[in-house]
């Protein structure tokens, strides 16, 4: 007998590389290339470290209120966490306690199966079609819950919201989580459906469209009962998930609608331009509604291109996994960064 027999053994999620060196073009973790809203930058300069003596507000009121105001929902419809990873982990723990499998696609955010394993939740990964689209009928059978990233990651493909609604409607006895980490870049959210379906949890984040990945702020919307259950689990686990700067700076970030809309549209414009360039260079991809493109070259292997870019100080993301090993997930950076990427690809594929 050894203590090791009682260890909860897990295969952890592998996050994208965060290189320590500068002068690298980092297109591997879908960060936003633009700074957070000006009020965030200003408030951080004036932040008083004395305030760190105290615990932060466990109910996260300023942030919850700012999010509720922006999206025109009640405070009781909002849950916040340490990035959407924390929100999703809490949601898996709270809602998926059935013997039936939770369903999600085979190609999707690779944290879902890690949480399922961690929390001992049965799950089934359902193959996407060859064009990486979701066949919604696959989610109509008996199950313990459904998780759909929409737009999906790493494919970038968007499922029309009436199709998502159909999945929610067909699964009234389980919770359906719609992970909208990238929805701001495609403009379609199922948030308005939280009043119609009490089994819907919509999860979003400050990490992409609000340029605050380093602050770790995620949030979710659902009916009041759903959010209350999530809060009970949170308060049974850790009262102080959100630190004081995240609460304050997050609430300032979300108040600046104009800056948010401007930076999102800059990224969308760059993305559309990059799509054309990539197509011209012989790449194929599902149409992306996110801040990345998941592309495969007609001739060169994913690994060859990945290694060439890496050698030229450009990092993109690649998985050595079935069905997607020839693909590269390229985050959308500034126009200047993307010009360098395209120039390097032209040199290589030329
Ligand atoms: N969902 C999806 C689909 C993602 O790609 C990511 C980013 N890795 C997350 C959730 C988590 O993002 P964060 O914890 O930074 O909010």
Task: Explain the overall architecture.
The protein is of the alpha/beta class and 350 residues long. It folds into two domains: 13-36 and 258-349, Aspartate Aminotransferase, domain 1; 39-255, Aspartate Aminotransferase, domain 2, CATH 3.40.640. The protein is built from ten helices and twelve strands. It has helices spanning 38-45, 61-71, 83-95, 112-118, 161-170, 224-237, 244-255, 257-280, 302-311, 335-349, and strands spanning 25-26, 78-81, 102-105, 123-126, 145-149, 176-179, 200-205, 218-221, 283-285, 292-297, 314-315, 327-331. The strands form three sheets. It has a seven-stranded mixed sheet, with helices on both faces. Helix 5 (161-170) links the parallel strand 5 (145-149) and strand 6. Helix 1 runs antiparallel to helix 7 (244-255), helix 2 packs parallel to helix 7 and helix 3 packs across helix 6. The longest helix is centred in the C-terminal third of the chain and has 24 residues, at 257-280. The chain starts with 24 loop residues before the first strand and ends with a helix. The mean pLDDT is 97. Its EC number is 2.6.1.9. It is an enzyme of class 2 (transferase). Its cofactor is pyridoxal 5'-phosphate. InterPro entries: Aminotrans_II_pyridoxalP_BS, Aminotransferase_I/II_large, HisP_aminotrans, PyrdxlP-dep_Trfase, PyrdxlP-dep_Trfase_major, PyrdxlP-dep_Trfase_small. Keywords: Amino-acid biosynthesis, Aminotransferase, Histidine biosynthesis, Pyridoxal phosphate, Transferase.
